[in-house]
Amino acid sequence: MSGAVAVAFVSSSGGVLPDVLTVANNWPVPISELWIAPKTVDTESKLGGRDVLWLDEPDGRPASMIRATAAARATLQSRNIDWVASAGTAIALPFFVAAQSLGVSTLWIETLNIHGGHGRVAEICSRLATRTLVQSPDRMLAHRRALLIGELQ
């Protein structure tokens, strides 16, 4: 798609995937999509027909995160990505770090399906994000550069 914004949507399987899909399907300008996700039953079924790079979630060890970040950087550069958008989990972190090092804009989608507090990856990615989408007004003060979008799905 000529002139389209290139967006890498990074998602884990499970509850965050529908939120990321909703944002992708409602992006305000024409986009060229690349999906980065672990290959699971739900990601395969929900991302069928889309351009997907299947990656395993990094295990959190420093060496694994360094390798994942280098691979993320190479992916963003080779695909000329303009934006990285995600709602989590560990698979998102290397892409947000790589995006920041390359000057690529990032969008963090705070999900409502997280119970018992947000994890470390969500905290880091929301701080690195160019913009954070929140679904509840009470979360506006928790994030700099937050944009209230209301409940997704």
Explain what the structure shows.
- The chain is of the alpha/beta class.
- It has one domain: Rossmann fold.
- Helices cover 35% and strands 23% of the residues.
- The chain has a seven-stranded parallel sheet with strand order 3-2-1-4-5-6-7, with helices on both faces.
- It is globular.
What is the second-level CATH architecture?
3-Layer(aba) Sandwich
- Identify low-pLDDT runs: none
Gross geometry = globular
Summed up, the helix count is 5
- Total E-strand runs: 7
- Say which CATH homologous superfamily is assigned: Glycogen Phosphorylase B
Terminal Cα separation, in Å?
26 Å
Q: If you average the pLDDT, what whole number results?
A: 87
Q: From N to C, what is the helix and strand string?
A: EHEHEHEHEHEE
Strand order of the largest sheet: 3-2-1-4-5-6-7
Core attributes:
about 150 residues; alpha/beta; Rossmann fold; 7-stranded parallel beta sheet; globular
TL;DR?
This protein is of the alpha/beta class. The chain has helices at 16-25, 41-46, 62-78, 92-102, 120-128, and strands at 5-11, 31-37, 52-54, 83-88, 105-109, 131-134, 146-148. The protein has one domain (5-148): Rossmann fold (3-Layer(aba) Sandwich), CATH 3.40.50.
Topology:
Elements: E1 5-11, H1 16-25, E2 31-37, H2 41-46, E3 52-54, H3 62-78, E4 83-88, H4 92-102, E5 105-109, H5 120-128, E6 131-134, E7 146-148
Parallel strand pairs: 1-2, 1-4, 2-3, 4-5, 5-6, 6-7
Helix pairs in contact: 3-4, 4-5
